[in-house]
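User: Hello! I'm new to structural biology and keep hearing that structure can be predicted from sequence alone. Could you demonstrate with Histidyl-tRNA synthetase? Please show me the input and the output so I can see what each looks like.

Assistant: Of course. The first part below is the input, the amino acid sequence of Histidyl-tRNA synthetase. The second part is the output, the predicted structure written as tokens.
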Amino acid sequence: MKYTRLTKEQFEELYQEFINFLATQSISADEWEDIKKNKPETAEQELDVFSDLVWLGVLSKVKYIEHISPQQIHLFKCREKDMHLIALKINNDAVDFTTKEGFEWLRNNLLSDSVEFFNAKKDYSEDKHMDIFKLIQQGGNITKGELFQYFEKLIGQK
């Protein structure tokens, strides 16, 4: 398996898609029950293959990822050949970006000396989707990119 197996809840949400996936492999509902009962290792492999297909579909559509921690914000724009990063770092332990108050502080003190901005570009490795997956595994969230676009305009980068 390349990525991670979907959770039970995710499989439940994708029940119909999983049935369609089994059907493309000519596996009927009765055959699936038999495989689960008598060939658990084969069932595990099917779950893994389906999980990887779902992940690949999701990862190929990701445009923006945000990772917000108490003292830092990392905003990624996933482009065709590289990733653009805008990062903010705060030099004030009393501020926590993960809280509403911390975000309000940032909005009011954006240009203060205690807020540092970083701007970088990173080429993907040979596996763009795995690079994106690793960011998600490290706590990044897929977003629509509003925060990235706001800071992109603010710092004047394209």
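User: So the tokens describe the shape?

Assistant: Right, they're a compact way of writing down the 3D structure. Reading them back into a model, for example: Residues 42 and 101 are 50 Å apart (CA to CA).
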